[in-house]
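Recap from last week: sequence in, structure out.
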Amino acid sequence: MAVLLSPIGGAALAASPPASASGSVSSTDGALIGGAAVTLSGNGPQRSARSDRRGAFSFPSLTPGTYTLAVTAPGYNPIDGRLVEVAANANTVFDLRLPRLQASSLTVIGSVRANGAQTISTLPAPTLDISMQPYAQQGETRVSDILANQLSTTVVPVLGGGLNAPMVVSLRGPDPSETLVDIDGHQVNNGSTGDFDLSLLDPADLVSSQVVYGIAPSSLFGPNTLGGALNVRTLEPTTEPHFLERLTAGTFDTFGETLQATGTEDRLGYAFSFHRLTSGGDQDETPYPNAAGGFSPIGDSLDASSTIAKLRYSIYNGAGFIGVSMRDQAVYRDVSSTMSSVETQPDGPPLYANFSGSSTLSHIAAYDLDAQVPIGPENPSGVYPTTAIFRHQTSVSDQTVSGPGADTSPYLYNDRDAIADDTLEIDHALPRGELSARFALTNENLTTDFIPGVVYADAYRVAAPSVLQLADFARTDSGDEVGLLPLDHGETAGSGGTSQQFLAQTQRSLGLRYSAEPTTHLHYSFAGYYSDYTTFGHSLDPRFGFVWTPKAESALRFSVGSTFQSPQLPTFIVPPTLPTPVDGYSSIGNPHATAERATSYDFGYEHRLRIGGADFSLSGDLYRTDLHNGVATYLSPTPCTPSTPPADYGTCLSYPVNVTQEVYQGFELRGELAITKRDALHLGYDIDSVYTQSVPAVALDDVGLYEQALGVPLHKVVLDYEHDPALGLAYYAGLLYEGAYNETNLAPYATLHAGATLHLAHLDIGLYGTNLTDVYDFKQQHVGAGVPYGAAAGPMLPTNAIPLAPRTITLSIAHKV
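Predicted C-alpha cells:
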C-alpha cells in the first residue's frame, strides 16, 4: 500500500501551486468589508478576487513575483499602487484596511500589510499618517505636542513658552505660514498671520493627522505652500457603533472630559464628539514684580471646549455620499505668564516686564457641506471610474484680546476672519493611472485692528501717533537700492491708527494631475496649478514626481516643482497716520508686496527587510528649496524717536519688501524595527539647514548671511519604544533631542516622555508623563539670556531664552464600547 501511495503523493506534490495568497479586507475602524474587489497585476495576467461577507479573499494559484495591488469597495477610499511580493512555495497573507469614503483634499493612505509587515507606498512625497486616537488614550491634549516629535517639524512658540502657550507648526522651514493646514479637506490658514494654532486641536476629536513633506504631486493639495501640508481628519462615522467616555486628570489642576459616539444606521452615518479641557496652569495667580515696584498676579490657565458633529448619507449603493458637519471650538487663555519676562542687569536689580491681566478669548465655528457623486456607469468590478467631489465650508474665527498684552504681537489683535471655501474635484481612474482636476475658490474677509510690522518680529503697542500723513507707496529695486514712490493715480490709502481694518481677498486655483504606473516598477505623476489671487496676481506652478521600485521592498523617489507663498493680508495695510516709532522705526505695510517664489527638489529612498525575524524599514530623504523674492524688513537709514518726528517719508520707516534669497535644505532618516507584533522601536534623525543667501544692505534686519536661522534646530533626534498588546499592560518611552538654534534660543536639550496603559476588555487606564527631565522649566522668558546669534563676520546679537512646558503627569480612564 505504501509503495502504491508514494508515486501518487509525489505527483500531487509536484502539481501543487508554486505560490498562493489570501487575506482579509476591513475598515480602519475594524469592521469587516464584504464585496471588496482585490486586484493583482503586473506579473502575468491580471488576477481578481472578491472578499466574502467576513472580508476574506484568496488567490489559490499565483506566479511568484512582484505585483501591484489595488483594493476597491463601495463606501471606502480605494487603495492603489501598493507593491506586494508573492513568494514561491508559500502563502502570502494580506491584511488590507480601507478608510471610510471622505472628501479629503490629500491622498488618504490605507494600510496594506503582507505577512504582518507594512508595504511601501509608491507616492512621490514622503508621507506620515499619524493615528490620533492612541495619543488621546495616552492623555495627550494638543496635536502640536505630537507633531513636535516628528522630523523636520518645528513647533513655534509665538508668544513665549511654558504651559498652555499657543503653538503653530512649520514643515521644512522657519515660517509657519509656509505650511498648508487642512481640516477635513478645507484649508484653515488664516489671512492675518498665515498659519493655524494647532495647540487648539485635541487628539480626542481626530482620526489622524497626515503629514506630507514637500510639494511632490501626491495629490492636488496646494499650491500655496513651501514646506508641505498637514491634513487633519476629524472624527468620522464608523461602520459599527462605537462609544467612548474618557476622563483625564493631571498636574497643575488639569482636567479633561470627552464624550464620543459614532456609527451607521442603514444609510445614515453619524459622528459626535464633545471635549472639555481646563487647566489652572503652573503659574496660577503667581505674584510677579511690576514696574511700580510692587507685585501683580500672572497666570497661564486654560479653559477650552470643542464640539464636532457629522451626518453622512450614503447614495449610489455606497459609491457616493452627501454629508454635513459642524466644528465649534472656544478657548480662553491667560497669557500673562507666557508674555512676562525678566532681564538681568550687570550693575543693578533685574528688570521685570509684567503682563498681568493679559488674556485671549477665541471662538472658531466651521460648517461643511460635502458630496461625492459617481459620474457615468460602473465597471465590471462594481466601481465607478469617474467621480465628482464637491466641498464647501463656511468658517468664522473670532479673537478678543484683553490686558496690556493686547496689540503687542500679530497673534494678539482683536480680529474676525470669515472664510468661504469651495472646491470641485473630478477624478477619473485609468487602466493604469488616474487623471484629476480640481478647481478651488476661496473668499476671505478679515476685520482686524492689526497694524503690521513685518512677519513676526516688529510687533508693538501703538501709542499717540504723530501728525504726519502717509501716502501709499510702491517699491523700486536697483541693485541694493530700495526706494519709496508716491501713491499711484487712482489708488487709496488704508485707514490708520488702531481703528478696524477691513481686508478681503479672493483666491482661485485650477489644478490638473496625471499619475500612471505603466509597470510594477515605474510610477510617475505630473501636476500643474494655475492660481489667481486678488492680492498679488497670477502664478503657474508645474510639478513632477517619479518613483522607481526595483522590488516590492525598495522604492526610489524624486520630485521637482515650483511653488509660492502669498502675502498675509495685513502686509498691505499702510495707515494714513504714521505710528509712533518703536526701537527707532515706525512699522507699516507695503501694498505692492507680492508672493514669495520657490523651486523645490526632493530625493528619497526607502527599503524594508527582515533582521533576525524582525521587520525593519529604513528611509531617507534629501530636500532643497530655493526661495526667491522672499520677504525681508526694510529699515530706513536714519532711525528716529517719538521726540524727533521724521522729516520725510523715507525716515525711520520699516516695512516688508520682496528682496531676499534663501535656502531650505536638509536630510531626514527614519527607521522602524517591528521586534514582535506588539513591540516596535522608532528612530529618526534630521538635519534642517535654513539660511539667507542674499539681501540688500538697506533691508538687513538682524540677518546673518549663510547663518542658520533662529528657531529651526539644525539637528533633531527622535527615539521611541512601544509595547502595545490588545489586552494587558502597554507601555512606551520616548526621547526628543533638539540641537543648536532651537525654538528656546538655548543650548541643545533632550526631553523624555513615557507612559503605561492597562488595556481591559472595555476599559483603558493609563498614567503618562511629559518632559520628565523637566529641562528648561524656568517659567518666564529671560531677556537677553539666550544663546547669542550672529554671523561670524558681524556682531553677536542677544536673544531671549524661552521656557519649555514643565513636567506633567496625567491619569486617563477611558471606557469604550
